[in-house]
Amino acid sequence: MELELPDAGGVTWSVCVRDGLGMPLAAAGADAPLRTASVGKVLLLVETARLIAAGDLSPDEPLTRSVDLWVGDSGLWHTLSVETLPLIDVAALVGAVSDNLATNVLLRRVGLAEVAARATSLGLRATALHDRVRDVRSADHPATLSTGSATELSQLMARLASGTAAGPDADRLVRQWLSANVDQSMVGSALVEQGGLDPIAHHSSLGLPTTFWNKTGTDAGVRADVGAVTSADRTITWAAVANWDPSPGTTLDHLTVWAVLRGMRHIGEQVLTQL
Fold first, then answer.
1. Does residue 250 lie in a domain region?
2. Helix (H), strand (E) at residue 236
3. pLDDT digits (tens, 9 = 90+) for 153-195
4. Number of domains into which the chain is organized
5. What is the reported pLDDT for 70?
6. In 3D, which of 125, 141, 121 has the Cα closest to residue 133?
């Protein structure tokens, strides 16, 4: 399997694609720890699902948003009038639209230390969720929301696909949340454009012949996509992360973003060839 990643704008890549047994099919800079933006929210969903499956969290527990956790940008909850939602719906918002406010509310309930402990128990060393989401990140805060390497993230995707991360029931719940993801601008773009998948209607409950779930992350100088696709009992998992030094508002940075998205689409095309 060939990976042709664009060499543009000083981009650093960390990529790993695996087969259904978790064996690498292709890799580039896979061990490099990079900023992963919202991809770290997967770790929160894993711990949330584990607690639900263990009976330590009720999916119906009401969670209420508050001013101290307020954050805009990605998501829907900050645009809605409802103040309180069931925990299961808060997690669904994180999976579907990478909801920042929902992330903060859920993280307050589950605990950042607990998420970190779960990551450690999964053998993750370069991959972590460091903080809540913030509109402004000062010197007093962790430098970035999350970090990870493609080696570890692709292994986590393979374990989630096989039900061996937090257990079959918990992993099924994580896959369900991530199968509602509406952002298919990266690796998923090839699955939508060439694989015939609906970009916003590929939820696991639809019983489609091809199942697909993923989590993306976007920030200044960051694009990341991790996930899995299954067709005819063959599963391919991936983690693709690109970092660069951004120059906001410049033509150069726009060209770098375009090149990175083209590279992400190429990875998706290579995934399709393996199905």
1. yes
2. strand 234-243
3. 999 999 999 999 999 999 999 999 999 999 999 999 999 999 9
4. 1
5. 94
6. 141
Q: Is residue 57 part of a domain?
A: yes
Tell me if 1 is assigned to some domain: no
Judge contact between 179 and 197, C-beta under 8 A. no
Residue 93 in any domain: the answer is: yes
Complete DSSP assignment for 155-213: HHHHHHHHT-SS-HHHHHHHHHHHTT----SSHHHHHHHTT---TT---GGG--SEEEE
pTM of the model: 0.96
Query: What are the residue ranges in the chain where pLDDT is below 50?
Result: none
Distance CA 56, CA 109 (A): 12
Domain that holds residue 193: 12-273
Tens-place pLDDT, residues 215-237: 999 999 999 999 999 999 899 99
- Look over the chain and give the mean of its residue pLDDT values, rounded to a whole number: 95
Q: Whole-angstrom Cα distance, residue 4 to residue 95?
A: 29
CA dihedral 23→27→32→34, nearest 10 degrees, is: -100
CATH number reported for the structural domain that contains residue 97 in this entry: 3.40.710.10
Tokens of 265: 């689409």
User: Which single residue is written with the structure tokens 């060839």?
Assistant: 273
